[in-house]
Write a structure and sequence with these properties.
Radius of gyration: 30 Å
Order of helices and strands: HHHHEEEEEEEEEEEEEEEEEEEE
CATH superfamily of the largest domain: Glycosyl hydrolase domain, family 43
Largest sheet: 5 strands, antiparallel
Number of helices: 4
CATH class of the largest domain: Mainly Beta
Helix content: 25-40%
Number of domains: 2
Number of strands: 20
CATH topology of the largest domain: Tachylectin-2, Chain A
Structural class: alpha+beta
Distance between the termini: 117 Å
Strand content: 25-35%
CATH architecture of the largest domain: 5 Propeller
Shape: globular
Length: 442
């Protein structure tokens, strides 16, 4: 009996030992698997970090290149302007001495000297980092430079860099906002008559802490109650993500203040969110329309805003309005601007490559602010023509009489593509059917 008990005891001890051994092996195996998994995850994270770092380095390189190109172009222009002004002074003197300073010649030379002198002075102020004075210098010669650029026959009203314009009427004064340039994060100019524009300066002097400096564009301003709300596109610092933010001011000229701690909309999985434009429906409901993605994947969206305009209405989601489905769009639809008139909803947009003369403006008709929408015509309503190349970044507004206008930027033919200027144009817009008509001149 004792031997049996000893035998059972030995068997029990062996079983326990085997169980313990297996437990140790299992733990060891799981520890090894976990270590390998962590290692793979760490390697994946490292690879992702390397990729992100490479992207950041590329972004820095592109920015440096762009700055170098812009600086080089500015320096070249300054040299050319100085040389041209010297030649003009000599020509003027020669004509005066010979008493053949003909009226046409005199007006042409004097106008050219005025324009070039103002631009030269503005360049000097930019170099001195005095953007406010540069804006003043530009405003002072706007008329002369417009005359030299062909006057207003093409609709040109502001012959300086003013991309992605957005125009609104407040009282009897027109305010136009544009992508960052000489005048700062958001440019602003004002006019009493749509013909004479004066630079005010920077409508958005500072950015929230999460935003990258010098990467703001495509503004849109709405008057909500007694405040003015600015929607704009901006890059998130350190990520390269393109997002939409919002700022407010007590007056249309600003200064606008953005107190946000994060963007209003990003859609990172879709390639970012840009080109915001506010829309107030006939019943007073607020909406925001914008673009996501890049060439080949771009879409236009709409979503209802809260009454304050500072956030989206709880429980709502973005609704897709439009995708590029026409040959002329070449895979890109962007810069949306919605308008309701005559019982119809129109969605104006730009298509094709913004950095080329193929850029153009199209229009879609919608059932309502949340769509659905469809192209009103298979061709653009505004495209490259005499005196205008690559028009886009449009904004539709009504003047003091209730007549509609379309504001847009365009290149000067022969000077298409970055870092050339995209000037501000205005043309009348008429609605006599399903497809609005843009006037061929200002």
């Amino acid at each position: 009996m004792a031997d049996r008990r000893r035998t059972r005891c030995r068997r029990w001890l062996v079983a326990v030992a085997v169980a313990l051994g297996l437990g140790v092996l299992v733990v060891a195996a799981w520890t090894d698997i976990d270590a390998r998994t962590r290692s793979r995850n760490e390697q994946a994270s490292l690879a992702a970090a390397d990729t992100h770092l490479a992207g950041l380095r590329h972004g820095v390189a592109v920015t440096r290149f762009a700055n170098a190109v812009t600086t080089a172009k500015r320096n070249s222009l300054q040299t050319s302007i100085a040389s041209t002004m010297t030649q003009l002074a000599a020509t003027n003197a020669s004509l005066a001495n010979a008493n053949v300073h003909a009226y046409v010649q005199g007006v042409g030379i004097d106008t050219l000297q005025t324009c070039l002198g103002g631009v030269k002075s503005a360049f000097g102020q930019i170099t001195a980092k005095n953007n406010t004075q540069a804006a003043n210098d530009i405003s002072a010669v706007s008329g002369a430079c417009t005359q030299l650029a062909g006057g207003t026959s093409t609709g040109l009203v502001y012959p300086f860099d003013f991309p992605d314009p957005s125009v609104m009427l407040v009282g009897q004064t027109y305010y136009a906002y544009a992508t960052n340039s000489v005048a700062g994060n958001i440019q602003i100019i004002v006019s009493p008559d749509l013909s004479h524009w004066t630079a005010v300066g920077n409508a958005l002097p500072s950015l929230p802490g999460w935003a990258s400096a010098n990467d703001t564009w495509a503004p849109s301003v709405a008057m909500i109650g007694r405040k003015f709300v600015l929607y704009y596109a901006v890059e998130v610092a350190g990520t390269g993500n393109e997002c939409i933010s919002v700022a407010t001011a007590s007056q249309p000229q600003g200064p606008f203040l953005d107190t946000s701690t994060a963007p209003l909309e990003c859609q990172e999985s879709l390639g970012g969110s840009i080109d915001p434009s506010s829309f107030i429906d006939t019943n007073g409901t607020l909406y925001l329309v914008w673009k996501s993605g890049g060439p080949g994947s771009s879409k236009i969206w709409s979503q209802q805003l809260a009454p304050s305009g500072m956030s989206f209405t709880p429980g709502t989601n973005p609704t897709q309005l439009l995708v590029p489905d026409q040959p002329w769009e070449s895979g890109t639809v962007e810069a949306p601007d919605m308008l309701s008139t005559g019982g119809r909803y129109y969605l104006f947009f730009s298509g094709n490559d913004w950095n080329s003369s193929s850029y153009a403006v199209g229009v879609a008709t919608c059932i309502g602010p949340l769509g659905p929408c469809s192209d009103a015509t298979p061709t653009p309503i505004l495209s490259t023509a005499a005196g205008v190349a690559g028009p886009g970044g449009e904004s539709v507004f009504a003047d003091t009489s209730g007549s509609f206008w379309i504001a847009f930027h365009a290149w000067v033919p022969g000077a298409v593509g970055f870092p050339n200027d995209r000037d501000l144009y205005l043309r009348r817009l008429t609605f006599s059917g399903a497809v609005p008509t843009v006037a061929t001149s200002g």
